[in-house]
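Quick bug: Transcriptional regulator, TetR family output formatted oddly.
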Amino acid sequence: MAVANAAVKIPLEAPVVERRVRNRAATEQAILDAAKRLLAEEGFQNFGINAVARGAGCDKQLIYRYYGGLNGLLEAIGTDLGSWVADRIPDDTGGMFLLTYGDLMERLSMLFLDALRADPLMRRIVAWEVSESSEQVRRLSEARSKALAGWIERMRGSLVPPKGVDAPAVNAMIFAAIQHIVLASAVSDQCAGLALKNSKDWEKAATALKRIVRGVYG
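Here's what came back:
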């Protein structure tokens, strides 16, 4: 026979402070995701507090509270772009032996090509770099460039470019070429007569890019 006054187990809820912290983190992430999505789809023209709040499904006052307004939100997106490089361009060799600086740059070129093709927001930012001159674009561009430079420094170790080669200038040209063909393909599925419609076309482009890298770095 059960004892009448036996203790009844009641599920414990998370402490109020813990729930608030968790809810704030979720809201901050929702705001950041909405801001990135809005930038990717519509650009800066319609980028505002009200539009971001609608996309995040929250009160616009929370954007001011958590990010201090649009400038703070852009700073957070810039920081997130640094994470973009870490997520999309991992610190590993992909099974490739990095014996020379040329190996390093071939690996980075292929990773950057694939990452840029897969990310509409990053493509937008690259397009803005050559079409707009604003503080917002500059912040986002610098965040990506800094993250890429950091990847090279972490991965290259004792690897150095061939003597007499201005590696920063050459690498800038390589990145510019990658950015141009990716943007061109998004508009017309081709670049300077090179078809970029399917995986076979992109394999051809990747092979050509590797040859350019090897032509400079060996």
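Actually, after a second look the formatting is fine. DSSP finds nine helices and two strands in the chain. Closing.
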